[in-house]
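Listing 4. Sequential folding, example run.
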Amino acid sequence: MILLDLLGGVALLLWGLHMVHSGIVRAFGSDLRRILGTALRNRFLAFLAGIIVTALLQSSTATGLMTASFVTGGAVDLAPALAIMLGANVGTTLIVQALSFNVTAVAPLLFLVGVIAFKRGGQTRTRDLGRVAIGIGLMLLSLHILLDTLAPAEEAPAVRTLLAAITGDSFLCVLMAAVLTWVAHSSVTVVLLIMSLAYSGFITPVAALALTLGANLGSAINPVIEGSNSSNPASYRLPLGNLLNRMVGCALALPFLHPIADALSRFEPNASRMTADFHTAFNLVLAIVFILPLAWLASLLTRFLPERAKPNNPTAPLYLDEAALGTPSVALACAEREVLHLGDIVESMLLQGMTALMTDDRRLVAEVSRMDNAVDKLDEAVKLYVTRLTRESLDERDGHRAMEIIAFSINLEHIGDIIDKNLMELAQKKIKRKLAFSKQGAAELEAFHQEVIGNLKLAFSVFMSGDVKIARQLIAEKATLRTAELAAAESHLERLRERRPESIESSSLHLDVLRDLKRIHSHICSVAYPVLERAGALQPSRLRVVEPDESSTDDKDAASAG
């Protein structure tokens, strides 16, 4: 019965920690990711950011995933990323420090505040913070359950003898705690369990410190196993660097556990508090020792774990990281990068498609068709990836962003289809019939095409930044392009009236190209509407509101004309 209560307390602790983590991710996930991205400029800022972000998330693994999204592919230096992990290791100790004090009495208040915020909160973020409060309350309640469960067993000599035999060897303690942390996926939970055992006197101070070392080591194993891409050695750099730091720290501290325990017990006789202090001190010392030689360690890891040459498969997604699905803000960033990759291919199609149309290049026509196949595959991959992400409950902001990513991906895929199925069909028709545009007509089409290309780049900027000013500019360009289309069509009709032979032969072709480029531009501009809608900058309709008197006057005029 005692064992069942103990396991139940640990399970409740894990669930409380999960609620805190998921609540913080939903409320501040994208903000925390932005903090990490800014802090990666130098290692000391990165260290502080790692502490802050992990203290909020209560998961160094989640911090590592966010950091890895910046590091993968060499977008940022490895040394600041490793500094973030040093800070993350310190950040996980802060909640342990807070819970090492007797704050169990606060749990009912946290439950009350959390439930009110979760049920009555008008904003999504308020409900998420209510979830965090409930999670912290569950963690406090679980610690109370653990201590109450262990209290009757204090008088059981058999339990003490068993635990003394198991924890008698410090090296074995490190291994056991490392395995337990790897299984539990939480160093915080294991350290709090160690503190409970130490407080109840079931394990010696030396055993408590050795088990704490093992918990620190075990928390670095999970990212190596689960957060890396086995097909790309470079993805192991960050988690392996963090694991190496922990292994060196454990190897240096293990022989001196007895004198360390004696020294700490003089300052802190409470075994539970002493364990928490050692947990924090160990990670702080590791950070001080390793933060300066991080550049050397990063160079070593880069040398032995080189970036894998990217396969020459344009249909393969480059950034859709399966391991990131557990952290919505990171997964959305991966999807954004993949949509930009898809957009690069569409831009190449648009450039090469126009070149094929103007130069009668059959090879380019076939190449554009192959590129459209890649666009179709990538669009499907993005939609499936984001759909898997939305199976988890996302906050309102992340949910809207997920829909925007899917919508832009679909519009890019439609642009690819128009280029392949329409423009390239026109190119083949032009080649087959040996048609030619007039010099003036070709110049108008190329100028129109350049406008479309420029606005596609503008659309990428709107998609990533959500800038209202740029979104307004993009929509304004839609009206400008409509005017340009009318002017080009009028100019073409004027050439027909002049009976120019090349204009007569290519008349239908010329107008069809204009039509298709305008359709492409409409899909490009669609990315601006969600941004403007959020800003309240859209009208319900483009139709002018007609007053009743004006309407009746128009009816009378129409009747008299009849």
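-- end of first protein; second protein begins --
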Amino acid sequence: MRSRSRLHAGARRARRHLHRCVRIDARALAMFRVSLALLILADLLLRSRNFTFFYTEHGVVPRSLARELSADYAFSFYHLSTNTTVIAALFVIQALFAIQLLVGYRTTFATVVSFLFVVSLDHHNPLVLSYADVLFRLLMFWAIFVPLGERWSVDAVHRRREPRTAVAGIATAFILGQMVYMYVTNGIIKSVSSTWRSGNAAPRVLGLDEMTFLLGDTVRQFQTFLEFGGLLWYVMMVCGWVLLVTYGWYRIPFLLLYIGGHLSFALTVRIGAFAYVALAGLLLFVQTPVLDTLEHWLRRAGERSPSLQSLARHLESMRHRLRSVGARLPPPHPRWTTDRVRRARARIHGATLRLIIVTIVFVGVVLVAQTAGAVADHDGSEPLEEVIDRTVSETLEETTGVKQVNTVASAMAIDQPVGWGVFAPNPRTTDRYYVFSATTESGEYVDVYSDRPLAYDRPFNELQRQYGTYRERFYMNSVRRGGSSTDTAAILAEYRCAEWEATHGERLTHLNMYVVSEEVTRATVDSPEDRDRSYRLFYRHGCGDNEPMTFEPPE
């Protein structure tokens, strides 16, 4: 009897600990909601710079190509029409729903629709995506199941009860677990690399001119500091689970490390929105005791500083005005919403989460069983990592049940990467830039990509300047990898031919797409002229009716 009672007591303590670990403060949910909305609005604004080039039939990714490169049955509002005006209108509609999410009006509905628009836009051009987009979609998906509008929202103004301080449950465990899963699997993949284990990864990443910006050129002068930082980041990835087994103030020292790491990426490496999406996800780990203390400190600081007091009065006035505006809006839930309707919604919510749990467990068990069998049968004839990768791919594509789950998940762009390969297993050690060598009808040789006379040396000392936007770099990676196996390079080549004629008044006859790679070593980080350079032709094109022809680069 004593042993049984001790087991029960231990189980109760474990449940209480788990409950504390997955609790999310309602204010953290509100900050997370605002961050999601602002990220959507910022993304739409940044994408609009390449609106015609990337998102219309007149650009390089027509709907036919997007559908060809997307998953089967890929969902997208943007595929409803090829009309440029309609696509622009959908951009505006997506922004309006993001604003609705920002203010927290009918928050769950706004979250669902915003998620569908995010998926739609990503499927509209899959060539410009990165891990930031994958993480953002998954966080948006899990956000559907948590009460983002509990605090600091129009919904809260109309609600007839006091807002909850915090929430805990399966949904909060999933959304927190998403961040932890990303870190841990990335750490596991990095662990096979001696470059990460030795601390040499960060100096190599910061040595790439194609990616570094802002403080990157300054920071990479401190190689020892970078070695320590890279090794610490690797350990943080492997130990990402610590964020989920700690709570309250015990979690804060670890959380600050992750926040500092992502901020350092945002200031040194041009990798899109990844740092900002991750920072939004980390807001969820800040719990009630910490936020209460921060509010107390801010209140005390405001009492001592006249300027802060003035700011506080302005913010309080703004809050009252916003509450007044929110109160005049129609109630988020119609007056005829009965208790039966609310119970039905709760049952649907619970059933959906249970279905997700069963699906994740089923797929996980099958993947583990298949992978374990492949590892047991491994005879050493090929690298174990390749065996595991092939087994996972075959399981997802061929195993009954798993295949259907993967098809649905891919169509909605919520297919979870089995392992997050951000800078893993090995970081890049080559800088790259592009030269599109072409000939005009008058016989002149030009570099169409950088709009200059033909030359194979660097177009800029800061190589990231060759791209108008960071998504253009992701796009060019997709073009380079696709080569002649898809229509991606052919469409881009024909676009460049037409663009050159329109802007220069002269036709091109032939165009070759070269990627130039520079091997970066620690000795050549600041002297690109001393790097070993190689040239690779990945596509050749004949403009108009001309047959393709190759121009050889210098030896």
